[in-house]
Amino acid sequence: MPTIQPLEAGQTAPSFTFQEDGKTISSDDLSVPCLLYFYPKDDTPGCTKEACGIRDAWAQFHDSQLKVIGVSKDSEASHEKFRQKYSLPFPLIADKDLQLTQAYGVYGEKKFMGKVYDGIHRISFLISKDGKILKTYLKVKPDQHAAEVLNDLATLNL
User: Which residues are catalytic?
Assistant: First the structure.
């Protein structure tokens, strides 16, 4: 089973594309900083808590001109249902082939209730508008993540 090797601050973030409002958008075209957050599965307790925490602080994220994008291996249909159910104001990337997840080094061995399996780790990346990773969040606590990112935005002066 592979161990995770998340990218670190200072490294160049791998490019990616995603769909938003029917348009294809490339990370290379973003003119604002981005929070790219990886999570295990739509509509599970921790993932819901993390997504809703960002949603609840959305005015502050929007005011700071930070693009937020979630990533899991769930399907587009699952993402749309999740977004609708919780009124999430940001896009979710369906990384079904794990290409993006592996490029960022967040897929690997996990342990839960005595089971060992491969999966997506809850890790986020704060990326500058020029594509450099400013911060890697390795031990994301779902209920505190939004506040942590907003605090970093204030201190990093993006």
Answer: 47
Q: What is the number of domains present in the chain?
A: 1
Domain assignment of residue 1, yes or no? no
Residue 121 is part of which domain span? 17-156
Helix, strand, coil percent content, the chain, rounded in steps of 5: 30, 30, 40
The answer to whether the beta carbons of residues 65 and 34 sit under 8 Å apart is: no
| Residue 26 domain-assigned (yes or no) | yes
Selection from 158, 155, 154 nearest residue 57 by Cα: 154
pLDDT in tens, 130-148: 999 999 999 899 999 999 9
pLDDT tens digit string along 23-38? Answer: 888 888 888 899 999 9
pTM, rounded to two decimals: 0.94
